[in-house]
Amino acid sequence: MIEIKNLTFSYAENNIFEDINCRIDNSWHLALVGRNGRGKTTLLKLLQNTFEYSGQISTENNFVYFPQNVTDKENLLYYILHELADFEDWKLNRELNLLNFPQDGLWRPFNSLSGGEQTKALLAILFLDDNNFPLIDEPTNHLDKESRELVARYLMKKRQGYIVVSHDRSFLDEVSDHVIAIEKNQLVTYQGNFTTYETEKKLRDEFEFAKNEKLKKEIHRLKETAREKAAWSNKMENTKNRKVRGFDSEKKRVDKGAIGTQAARLMQKSKNAERRANKDLEEKEKLLKNLEYINVLGINYKQSRKDKVISFNEVTVAFEEGKPLFAPVSFEITSGQITAIIGPNGIGKSQLLNKIYREAKNKNVKISQVRQIYEDNSGYIKDWAYKQNIDYQMLLNNLKKLGMERNVFNQKIENMSMGQQKKIELARSLSTPAELYIWDEPLNYLDVFNHEQIEELILQINPTMIVVEHDKFFIDKIANRIIELKREDMGEENEKKTRRIN
């Protein structure tokens, strides 16, 4: 077992974990989930004793972390892997074969490999020693749909346990039999895969929401009672002072001592009632649960007056004058249609998006993008928004709804985390007036709560959109048309270029 007792950890005055307790079985295929910035990677680092903390983590496991730190990226992969772990070559070849890793890849420089190939190589050495307990942080980055499915099958065949962090829900469903969710500053354990967790959490949240609403009504009533008791108490105090000063209401001289004693009793009774009301109010407020709320995002969508926004006939792309990257496809984008472009890594999906962007721009279509690379977003948010000519208030509202902490707003964009920079790019696109949205891998670096927000927005507004994304769950949910890109040399299989989703 991995046993966590009374663990508390703070970073830069932010309380990440507070007095958490948890037990993890070594055999679990465990998914670790939670909102961006809640401490998923931090928890993995704490298990490795990287940071100081208060409390106790008890385990006899030797943890190994993915992704490993590769220092000399120009070195050949074979030598890099031997620097990172001790293993026999035949065992490495066995693992690489299971991951469909190219045979010549071991003798190529690490930085010449694709992101997916680097991921597969580092995953292979992670499982070469059965005595290690793997901590796998975001293995799906840079992997296309087919590679994600392959890595998922690879992980599920492993007999040993592991902890995996990923924002791909379909991937988590395949690789997990238990889930630990970071909810506020606590850990909650669920038995089952990610879908089980989502279902149970939804039911629990609905129950807690209903209980919260009942408590809020009760708290409102108690506040009214407390105010009435306080007003009564003040009235008794004033009555005592007035009577003791001389006369009753009938203008007769009275016994000051008797009146004072009677008024004091009434005043004490009113004070006691006020204290009881405030105590009841305090206890009720303690019962309120600090629940996660998924806020609906805003979008500055302007529906096109044309039913057919743009069309292409037998289009393909190539690098300079080289061979086409994919077999030609024909399609048209109609108003209110959400089109997904799918295909393996390197087939030219982003290049096709760029071609669509240029053509739409030439036809004076108002476009808004989410780009894969957005290093030109820089400076303070307010100044940057002004230069982008976008609604600053709408931008801020969307950033808050996406879970951006207020203290981040005072940082320069280039100094933010990758997740925060992605939220800036997404919020910019949502705030830009557009007839057509062109999104290239919008879910990268965003947590599953953000995924749900984006899905809900798209399904509610139904904007005209073209999207490239490797998250199968997302595509299945939002797309009503799919364009599948295939290699030029696949022959007759390319005759069916697109398909519709009923």
Q: Could you walk me through the main structural features you see in this protein, from its secondary elements to its overall organization?
A:
The chain contains 14 helices and 17 strands. A hairpin with a 2-residue loop joins β8 and β9 (186-191). It is globular, with a radius of gyration of 30 Å. It has a 6-stranded mixed beta sheet with strand order 5-6-7-3-8-9, sandwiched between helices. It has helices at 40-47, 77-84, 89-98, 115-126, 145-156, 169-175, 194-244, 256-287, 349-362, 381-388, 392-401, 418-431, 448-461, 472-478; strands at residues 2-11, 14-24, 29-34, 54-58, 62-66, 132-137, 162-165, 178-183, 186-191, 308-315, 329-334, 338-342, 367-370, 436-440, 465-468, 481-484, 498-500. The chain has 3 domains: 2-192, Rossmann fold (3-Layer(aba) Sandwich); 203-243 and 254-287; 308-484, 3-Layer(aba) Sandwich (Rossmann fold). It is of the alpha/beta class.
CATH topology description of the largest domain: Rossmann fold
| CATH homology-level superfamily of the largest domain | P-loop containing nucleotide triphosphate hydrolases
- Biggest β-sheet: count, sense, barrel? 6 strands, mixed
Biggest sheet strand order reads 5-6-7-3-8-9
Strand content: 15-25%
Tell me the number of structural domains.
3
- Cα-atom Rg, whole angstroms? 30 Å
Give the class from helix and strand content and strand pairing: alpha/beta
Share of helical residues:
40-55%
Mean pLDDT: 83
Which CATH class of the largest domain applies here?
Answer: Alpha Beta
Count of alpha/pi helices:
14
**Uncertain segments:** 250-254, 491-502
Overall number of strands: 17
CATH architecture of the largest domain: 3-Layer(aba) Sandwich
Instruction: Give the distance, in angstroms, between the N- and C-terminal Cα atoms.
Output: 47 Å
